[in-house]
Amino acid sequence: SPHASAFAPHPHHLLASSAAPQPGRPDSPPDTSGQLSDQEWEIRTGRAIYILQQTLPTFFSTGLVSSIDTSNPSTRTRSDDDTSIYSPNVRLVYRPPTPFPPPFPRTLQIEGLPLYLASSVLLRHTLNALYTDLRVELQRVRVHGPRSSSTSGLDSPSSGPDPGSSPSDGPTDFQQQGKTRSIREKSLFVGVVVRGINRVSKAEGGWEVNSTYTFSPTTGLIHLHNIDSIHPAPHQAFFDALQAALSKIGFGGSHGQG
Q: At how many degrees (to 10) do helices 113-130 and 236-248 cross?
């Protein structure tokens, strides 16, 4: 799906994490030697919001930027995993109102950071094969905080788990962290317009793409990227080009069952 956030930086980042997704857990940080403080959690989510706002418009020239510029060694955190704004188990989900044509699944779902980054490379390659002068324009950016609190104050204690939390949010050991979870609810809504010139017809094409990025309450990293809508829906030519690109990298045409 032509969306401006599944894009990739450098090839070596595709191998940055080999951790397999663990569906039963909301997030599994690679290093849990110490619980993340509320202040550090806010710093991480704020950094991710800043990076997305600054880099999504340049996606087609720079690719996906998944980490901060660590040109100053003193600004580096403990590990490379800490510099990424995405969880190792990040999940991309898109369920279009009208099903994709075969062989694509009814719901597009990608799990794990390596596949998420690889899909962004594939997206750029596919759209660049069909369009020139591609660009991304930010239209709307909104931050959504805790549903049970009128403020985002980190010093305000909570009496218990957020009443808006679903029982399926995580295992029972996370329920005792209700105080943390209630103030550590944050998601970012991003609305963009992707524009380009069709290589065949020379006409300008454009899509309005709305997405929601949800942050992990434990790590402050993006662990869910939901594509809310794409309008208008991608044309058949996009799916043909995408399928051709998938075939080139060894994915057959009958692997998606929905």
A: 120
Interval 199-246: pLDDT, tens: 999 999 999 999 999 999 999 999 999 999 999 988 888 888 888 877
Containing H/E element for 40? helix 38-55
Residue type, 131: Y
Query: What are the tokens at 255?
Result: 């692997």
Higher-pLDDT residue of 70 and 114 is 114
Q: CA angle at residue 83 from 22 to 168, to 5 degrees?
A: 30
CA nearest neighbour of 153 among 48, 62, 42, 3: 42
Cα separation, 231 vs 216, whole angstroms: 28
What is the CB neighbour count within 10 angstroms for residue 223? Answer: 22
Q: What digits encode the pLDDT tens for the residues 75-90? A: 444 444 458 999 999 9
Q: β-strand 131-144 against 222-231: which pairing, if any?
A: unpaired
Q: Is 133 left (phi over 0), alpha (psi -120 to 50) or beta?
A: left
- State the Cα–Cα distance between residues 189 and 135, nearest whole angstrom: 19
> Which secondary-structure segment (H or E) carries 247?
helix 236-248
Both tokens of 32, joined, read 């849990």
pLDDT at 205: 92
Cis, peptide link before residue 88, omega less than 30° from 0? no
Which tokens hold the place of 11? Answer: 């090839």
- Which segment of 67-71, 157-161, 174-178 scores lowest on mean pLDDT? 157-161
